[in-house]
Design a protein that fits this description.
Elements (H helix, E strand, L loop, with lengths): L8 H25 L9 H12 L10 E2 L2 E2 L4 H15 L19 H7 L1 H22 L1 H4 L7 H11 L4 H18 L6 H27 L9 H9 L2 E7 L6 E7 L1 H8 L8 E7 L3
Length: about 280
């Protein structure tokens, strides 16, 4: 009774309906067994009664076994996966090895693990696919026309192009495989889901690092003289930025030397403005 206190009428009805149905089914079954003349029950009704009797317990059935097949991600599979990830990449696969939530890791996954671990694995899969598509767009797609690829083809293409290390690709495939099984209804223990997510989020960090290197890679390099170097070191720079998050967005222009540039760019990702251009001014 303590469980039902404070609940709304609709919630009470939803919570108690299965047990009302169970009580009614038991009553009809007893009437059949006692051969009450006023209540006649045929074979079809008996089958329906049997279904009604187990209905309240359907929610407790989490695993289905047919012969040797069982719809469950077994703990031993997760243990093997953790060992393989550790061997390939030096990734620590314990359930405590979940990186702190940050911009480089799938936002919200740690919180989701506490509320709905299957949904957390679904989000992890989405984050992984998003990172792979970004890496594909930054490397392979530059030379080829964009095509929509499944995750398996996407990983294979990235490995073949050299954009994705082969060792990392094996772990990514395993994370996808386990996440897909959980999403499609196979039972996974919460602690095992946490282990899978812990490894997956560390893979996300490695992908972010690779994407960052690609984005910051120079498109051109050239040797300069000592005089040119000194001119750049002593020069003044016209820096243009935009401040968007105000009622009336505006553009700012600064004239800075190298020391001023260092000061401006230090912690710039926390500023509420974005950089438009840096141009060297003629002396």
């Amino acid at each position: 009774m303590r469980y039902l206190r404070g609940r709304r009428p609709i919630q009470l009805l939803v919570c108690t309906m299965p047990w009302i149905v169970l009580a009614l089914a038991l009553f009809l079954l007893a009437a059949h067994l006692l051969d009450w003349q006023r209540i006649t029950i045929d074979g079809t009704t008996l089958v329906l009664l049997a279904i009604l009797l187990v209905t309240p317990f359907i929610e407790q059935v989490r695993r289905i076994r047919v012969g040797e097949f069982e719809a469950e991600i077994a703990p031993r599979e997760v243990d093997k996966f953790k060992a393989e990830a550790s061997r390939r990449l030096g990734i620590e696969g314990s359930k405590e090895a979940i990186p702190p939530e940050s911009k480089t890791v799938g936002e919200g996954i740690p919180d989701l693990l506490d509320r709905d671990h299957v949904l957390a694995l679904a989000k992890l899969r989405m984050e992984l696919e998003s990172r792979l598509n970004r890496l594909y767009s930054s490397t392979v797609e530059k030379a080829k026309q964009r095509r929509a690829l499944g995750y398996s083809r996407l990983i294979g293409t990235l490995v073949q192009s050299g954009a994705l290390p082969g060792q990392l690709s094996g772990t990514i495939r395993e994370v996808f495989y386990l996440c897909n099984r959980a999403i499609h209804g196979e039972y996974v223990r919460p602690e095992d889901a946490r282990s899978i997510a812990g490894i997956g989020m560390q893979v996300l960090e490695q992908l972010d690092s690779i994407i960052g290197e690609v984005a910051l890679k120079p498109v051109e390099t050239a040797t300069i003289s000592t005089d040119e170097l000194q001119a750049y070191m002593d020069g003044k720079y016209r820096v243009t930025t935009i401040v968007p998050l105000v009622e009336k967005p505006y553009r700012s222009v600064r004239v800075l030397d190298q020391e001023g540039l260092d000061s401006l760019l230090q912690g710039y990702d926390e500023c509420a403005e974005f950089l438009v251009s840096i141009e060297k001014m003629d002396s």
